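Hey, can you fold this one?
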Amino acid sequence: MSNGAPSGERKSTVGATTDVGQRRKHNEDTILVREDLGLYVVADGMGGHLAGDVASRTAVDVIEEFFEQTEVGWEPEVPPEQHRDLDDGGLRLLAAVTQANAAVHAEAESQEVRRGMGTTVVAAHLTSDGMIRVAHVGDSRCYRLGGSELEQITQDHSFVNNLRWSSPDLSDAELAGAPKNIITRALGTRPSVEVDVRSELTLPGDMYLLCSDGLSGFVDSGEILGILRQSEDPQQATDALIAAANSHGGKDNISAIVIRMDDNEDTVPISRAEVAEASSPPLRFDADSGKWRCSQCGHEHVEGTSFCVECGQAFLDPTA
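Sure. Predicted structure:
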Protein backbone atom coordinates (compact mmCIF):
# COMPACT_ATOMS: atom_id res chain seq x y z
CA MET A 1 0.00 0.00 0.00
CA SER A 2 1.23 3.48 -0.76
CA ASN A 3 0.11 7.03 -0.24
CA GLY A 4 0.94 9.35 -3.12
CA ALA A 5 1.26 13.07 -2.41
CA PRO A 6 1.77 16.22 -4.44
CA SER A 7 5.28 17.63 -4.80
CA GLY A 8 6.56 18.97 -1.50
CA GLU A 9 4.37 16.72 0.61
CA ARG A 10 5.60 13.66 2.47
CA LYS A 11 4.72 10.25 1.01
CA SER A 12 4.41 6.95 2.84
CA THR A 13 4.14 3.24 2.17
CA VAL A 14 2.21 1.00 4.57
CA GLY A 15 1.96 -2.69 5.43
CA ALA A 16 -0.48 -4.26 7.88
CA THR A 17 -1.16 -7.76 9.20
CA THR A 18 -3.16 -9.29 12.05
CA ASP A 19 -3.05 -12.94 13.04
CA VAL A 20 -4.80 -15.13 15.60
CA GLY A 21 -1.49 -16.68 16.70
CA GLN A 22 -0.84 -20.29 17.67
CA ARG A 23 -2.71 -20.62 20.96
CA ARG A 24 -5.90 -18.54 20.74
CA LYS A 25 -9.09 -19.63 19.00
CA HIS A 26 -10.27 -16.10 18.24
CA ASN A 27 -8.57 -12.89 17.20
CA GLU A 28 -9.54 -10.06 19.58
CA ASP A 29 -7.19 -7.57 17.89
CA THR A 30 -8.59 -5.04 15.42
CA ILE A 31 -6.47 -2.96 13.06
CA LEU A 32 -7.28 0.00 10.83
CA VAL A 33 -5.43 1.38 7.83
CA ARG A 34 -7.02 4.47 6.28
CA GLU A 35 -4.39 6.01 4.06
CA ASP A 36 -6.88 8.56 2.75
CA LEU A 37 -7.25 9.86 6.31
CA GLY A 38 -3.63 9.22 7.30
CA LEU A 39 -5.04 7.13 10.16
CA TYR A 40 -3.62 3.88 11.53
CA VAL A 41 -4.86 2.02 14.61
CA VAL A 42 -4.08 -1.19 16.50
CA ALA A 43 -6.47 -2.21 19.30
CA ASP A 44 -6.02 -5.29 21.49
CA GLY A 45 -9.31 -6.32 23.09
CA MET A 46 -9.69 -8.03 26.43
CA GLY A 47 -12.61 -9.66 28.16
CA GLY A 48 -12.87 -12.95 26.32
CA HIS A 49 -14.37 -13.96 22.98
CA LEU A 50 -17.17 -11.62 21.87
CA ALA A 51 -16.38 -9.08 24.61
CA GLY A 52 -12.76 -8.54 23.54
CA ASP A 53 -13.78 -8.49 19.89
CA VAL A 54 -16.50 -5.95 20.61
CA ALA A 55 -14.21 -3.69 22.64
CA SER A 56 -11.44 -3.45 20.05
CA ARG A 57 -13.83 -3.15 17.10
CA THR A 58 -15.90 -0.47 18.85
CA ALA A 59 -12.80 1.59 19.66
CA VAL A 60 -11.47 1.42 16.11
CA ASP A 61 -14.86 2.21 14.56
CA VAL A 62 -15.35 5.27 16.78
CA ILE A 63 -11.86 6.64 16.05
CA GLU A 64 -12.36 6.10 12.32
CA GLU A 65 -15.81 7.74 12.32
CA PHE A 66 -14.52 10.70 14.34
CA PHE A 67 -11.78 11.37 11.79
CA GLU A 68 -14.21 11.05 8.90
CA GLN A 69 -16.52 13.60 10.50
CA THR A 70 -13.80 16.09 11.47
CA GLU A 71 -11.85 16.29 8.22
CA VAL A 72 -13.14 19.84 7.69
CA GLY A 73 -14.06 22.56 10.15
CA TRP A 74 -13.28 20.83 13.42
CA GLU A 75 -12.40 23.12 16.32
CA PRO A 76 -10.86 21.69 19.51
CA GLU A 77 -12.38 22.33 22.91
CA VAL A 78 -10.25 23.74 25.72
CA PRO A 79 -7.96 20.80 26.57
CA PRO A 80 -7.19 19.48 30.05
CA GLU A 81 -4.19 21.05 31.74
CA GLN A 82 -1.88 18.11 30.97
CA HIS A 83 -2.59 18.49 27.24
CA ARG A 84 -2.30 22.28 26.89
CA ASP A 85 0.92 21.87 24.87
CA LEU A 86 -0.74 19.78 22.12
CA ASP A 87 -1.39 21.31 18.72
CA ASP A 88 -4.78 20.97 17.02
CA GLY A 89 -3.73 17.72 15.36
CA GLY A 90 -2.77 16.20 18.68
CA LEU A 91 -6.00 17.41 20.29
CA ARG A 92 -8.00 15.88 17.44
CA LEU A 93 -6.41 12.49 18.03
CA LEU A 94 -6.92 12.88 21.78
CA ALA A 95 -10.62 13.65 21.25
CA ALA A 96 -11.04 10.59 19.02
CA VAL A 97 -9.51 8.20 21.55
CA THR A 98 -11.45 9.82 24.40
CA GLN A 99 -14.72 9.27 22.50
CA ALA A 100 -13.67 5.68 21.85
CA ASN A 101 -13.24 5.14 25.59
CA ALA A 102 -16.74 6.47 26.29
CA ALA A 103 -18.24 4.22 23.59
CA VAL A 104 -16.48 1.06 24.81
CA HIS A 105 -17.47 1.82 28.41
CA ALA A 106 -21.10 2.35 27.43
CA GLU A 107 -21.10 -0.93 25.51
CA ALA A 108 -19.54 -2.74 28.47
CA GLU A 109 -22.24 -1.42 30.79
CA SER A 110 -25.05 -2.36 28.42
CA GLN A 111 -24.80 -6.14 28.88
CA GLU A 112 -23.73 -8.22 31.86
CA VAL A 113 -21.71 -10.58 29.65
CA ARG A 114 -19.61 -7.61 28.48
CA ARG A 115 -19.10 -6.02 31.88
CA GLY A 116 -15.43 -5.21 32.44
CA MET A 117 -14.37 -5.57 28.82
CA GLY A 118 -11.83 -3.15 27.46
CA THR A 119 -9.09 -2.67 24.91
CA THR A 120 -5.64 -1.22 24.61
CA VAL A 121 -5.04 1.08 21.66
CA VAL A 122 -2.23 2.76 19.76
CA ALA A 123 -3.25 5.18 17.02
CA ALA A 124 -1.18 7.29 14.63
CA HIS A 125 -2.31 10.16 12.45
CA LEU A 126 0.03 11.18 9.65
CA THR A 127 -0.40 14.50 7.83
CA SER A 128 0.94 15.49 4.43
CA ASP A 129 3.38 17.99 5.95
CA GLY A 130 5.25 15.11 7.56
CA MET A 131 3.91 15.43 11.10
CA ILE A 132 2.82 12.31 12.97
CA ARG A 133 0.75 12.25 16.15
CA VAL A 134 0.66 9.09 18.22
CA ALA A 135 -1.84 8.32 21.00
CA HIS A 136 -1.89 5.24 23.18
CA VAL A 137 -3.55 3.63 26.17
CA GLY A 138 -2.27 0.36 27.63
CA ASP A 139 0.59 -1.72 26.30
CA SER A 140 0.06 -1.61 22.55
CA ARG A 141 3.18 0.13 21.29
CA CYS A 142 4.68 2.43 18.70
CA TYR A 143 8.32 2.09 17.68
CA ARG A 144 10.31 4.34 15.36
CA LEU A 145 13.24 3.18 13.26
CA GLY A 146 15.28 6.26 12.34
CA GLY A 147 18.56 5.48 10.62
CA SER A 148 19.98 2.46 12.46
CA GLU A 149 18.30 3.09 15.83
CA LEU A 150 15.01 1.54 16.96
CA GLU A 151 13.24 3.56 19.65
CA GLN A 152 10.08 2.69 21.54
CA ILE A 153 8.28 6.04 21.53
CA THR A 154 5.36 4.97 23.71
CA GLN A 155 5.71 3.79 27.28
CA ASP A 156 3.48 0.92 28.44
CA HIS A 157 0.82 1.69 31.00
CA SER A 158 1.69 -1.37 33.02
CA PHE A 159 2.44 -2.54 36.54
CA VAL A 160 6.06 -3.21 35.60
CA ASN A 161 6.56 0.30 34.23
CA ASN A 162 4.94 1.82 37.31
CA LEU A 163 7.47 -0.07 39.40
CA ARG A 164 10.31 1.09 37.19
CA TRP A 165 9.42 4.78 37.57
CA SER A 166 8.35 4.70 41.23
CA SER A 167 11.20 2.46 42.44
CA PRO A 168 14.25 3.21 40.28
CA ASP A 169 16.52 1.32 42.67
CA LEU A 170 14.95 -2.03 41.83
CA SER A 171 17.36 -4.35 40.06
CA ASP A 172 16.69 -5.92 36.68
CA ALA A 173 16.26 -9.27 38.43
CA GLU A 174 13.62 -7.84 40.76
CA LEU A 175 11.77 -6.23 37.86
CA ALA A 176 11.97 -9.48 35.91
CA GLY A 177 10.04 -11.19 38.69
CA ALA A 178 7.14 -8.72 38.57
CA PRO A 179 3.93 -9.70 36.72
CA LYS A 180 4.26 -8.62 33.11
CA ASN A 181 0.67 -8.96 31.94
CA ILE A 182 -0.97 -6.39 34.22
CA ILE A 183 -1.90 -3.14 32.48
CA THR A 184 -2.88 -0.05 34.42
CA ARG A 185 -4.92 1.72 31.73
CA ALA A 186 -7.33 0.50 29.07
CA LEU A 187 -10.18 1.93 27.03
CA GLY A 188 -13.64 1.16 28.38
CA THR A 189 -12.90 -0.09 31.87
CA ARG A 190 -13.75 3.29 33.41
CA PRO A 191 -15.89 6.26 32.32
CA SER A 192 -12.76 8.32 31.64
CA VAL A 193 -9.16 7.48 30.81
CA GLU A 194 -5.86 9.34 30.58
CA VAL A 195 -4.49 9.22 27.04
CA ASP A 196 -0.83 9.83 26.19
CA VAL A 197 -0.32 11.82 22.98
CA ARG A 198 2.90 12.92 21.31
CA SER A 199 3.70 14.76 18.07
CA GLU A 200 6.86 14.77 16.01
CA LEU A 201 8.21 15.58 12.57
CA THR A 202 8.93 12.52 10.47
CA LEU A 203 12.02 12.27 8.30
CA PRO A 204 12.42 10.45 4.97
CA GLY A 205 13.36 6.85 5.65
CA ASP A 206 11.73 6.73 9.09
CA MET A 207 9.69 3.61 9.78
CA TYR A 208 6.95 3.49 12.41
CA LEU A 209 5.68 0.21 13.84
CA LEU A 210 2.35 0.01 15.65
CA CYS A 211 1.80 -3.33 17.33
CA SER A 212 -0.10 -5.27 19.96
CA ASP A 213 1.70 -7.00 22.82
CA GLY A 214 1.30 -10.30 20.99
CA LEU A 215 4.27 -9.05 18.99
CA SER A 216 6.25 -6.93 21.45
CA GLY A 217 5.83 -9.44 24.26
CA PHE A 218 7.52 -12.25 22.33
CA VAL A 219 9.86 -10.60 19.81
CA ASP A 220 12.59 -8.48 21.38
CA SER A 221 13.67 -5.10 20.04
CA GLY A 222 16.84 -6.49 18.48
CA GLU A 223 14.89 -8.94 16.35
CA ILE A 224 12.32 -6.28 15.45
CA LEU A 225 15.15 -3.99 14.35
CA GLY A 226 16.68 -6.71 12.19
CA ILE A 227 13.39 -7.49 10.47
CA LEU A 228 12.58 -3.85 9.75
CA ARG A 229 16.05 -3.17 8.34
CA GLN A 230 16.15 -6.31 6.19
CA SER A 231 12.63 -6.13 4.72
CA GLU A 232 12.21 -4.72 1.25
CA ASP A 233 8.87 -3.08 1.98
CA PRO A 234 6.46 -2.53 4.90
CA GLN A 235 4.14 -5.40 3.98
CA GLN A 236 7.04 -7.84 3.91
CA ALA A 237 8.11 -6.43 7.28
CA THR A 238 4.70 -6.94 8.92
CA ASP A 239 4.44 -10.48 7.57
CA ALA A 240 7.93 -11.28 8.86
CA LEU A 241 7.14 -9.79 12.28
CA ILE A 242 4.00 -11.91 12.58
CA ALA A 243 5.97 -14.99 11.55
CA ALA A 244 8.63 -14.21 14.17
CA ALA A 245 6.03 -13.93 16.95
CA ASN A 246 4.49 -17.23 15.87
CA SER A 247 7.91 -18.86 15.80
CA HIS A 248 8.31 -17.85 19.46
CA GLY A 249 5.10 -19.67 20.36
CA GLY A 250 2.40 -17.30 19.10
CA LYS A 251 0.79 -17.27 22.54
CA ASP A 252 -1.39 -14.25 21.81
CA ASN A 253 -3.10 -12.51 18.91
CA ILE A 254 -0.54 -10.58 16.88
CA SER A 255 -1.00 -7.31 14.99
CA ALA A 256 1.44 -5.01 13.25
CA ILE A 257 1.25 -1.92 11.04
CA VAL A 258 4.46 -0.57 9.50
CA ILE A 259 4.56 2.93 7.99
CA ARG A 260 7.62 3.92 5.98
CA MET A 261 8.20 7.58 5.20
CA ASP A 262 9.36 7.88 1.60
CA ASP A 263 11.58 10.50 0.02
CA ASN A 264 10.45 13.10 -2.51
CA GLU A 265 12.70 14.41 -5.27
CA ASP A 266 12.53 17.91 -3.77
CA THR A 267 13.05 16.80 -0.16
CA VAL A 268 16.05 18.50 1.45
CA PRO A 269 17.96 15.99 3.62
CA ILE A 270 17.79 16.84 7.32
CA SER A 271 18.88 15.07 10.47
CA ARG A 272 17.10 14.76 13.82
CA ALA A 273 19.82 16.91 15.33
CA GLU A 274 18.94 19.69 12.86
CA VAL A 275 15.25 19.33 13.70
CA ALA A 276 16.03 19.72 17.38
CA GLU A 277 18.37 22.66 16.77
CA ALA A 278 15.75 24.47 14.67
CA SER A 279 13.23 24.45 17.50
CA SER A 280 13.34 25.45 21.13
CA PRO A 281 15.59 22.77 22.66
CA PRO A 282 13.58 20.51 24.98
CA LEU A 283 16.82 19.17 26.50
CA ARG A 284 19.77 21.01 27.95
CA PHE A 285 23.21 19.67 28.81
CA ASP A 286 24.20 20.04 32.48
CA ALA A 287 27.99 20.43 32.41
CA ASP A 288 28.31 19.97 36.17
CA SER A 289 26.76 16.50 36.16
CA GLY A 290 27.59 15.61 32.56
CA LYS A 291 23.91 14.73 32.00
CA TRP A 292 21.20 15.83 29.58
CA ARG A 293 18.22 17.28 31.44
CA CYS A 294 14.67 18.30 30.58
CA SER A 295 14.68 22.03 29.89
CA GLN A 296 11.22 22.34 31.42
CA CYS A 297 11.62 20.65 34.81
CA GLY A 298 15.33 19.78 35.02
CA HIS A 299 14.81 16.03 35.42
CA GLU A 300 17.63 13.83 34.13
CA HIS A 301 17.00 12.42 30.65
CA VAL A 302 16.42 8.65 30.73
CA GLU A 303 18.31 7.14 27.82
CA GLY A 304 16.06 5.56 25.19
CA THR A 305 12.98 7.63 26.06
CA SER A 306 11.56 10.41 23.91
CA PHE A 307 9.73 12.29 26.64
CA CYS A 308 10.48 13.46 30.18
CA VAL A 309 9.46 10.78 32.70
CA GLU A 310 8.88 13.53 35.27
CA CYS A 311 6.78 16.17 33.47
CA GLY A 312 5.92 14.40 30.19
CA GLN A 313 7.51 16.94 27.80
CA ALA A 314 8.31 15.29 24.46
CA PHE A 315 11.80 15.64 23.06
CA LEU A 316 14.24 14.12 20.61
CA ASP A 317 17.23 12.17 21.89
CA PRO A 318 20.13 14.63 21.60
CA THR A 319 22.51 11.84 20.64
CA ALA A 320 20.33 10.61 17.74
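The helical segments are 51-69, 88-110, 159-166, 172-176, 213-216, 221-230, 234-247, 272-278. Let me know if you want another pass with a different chain boundary.
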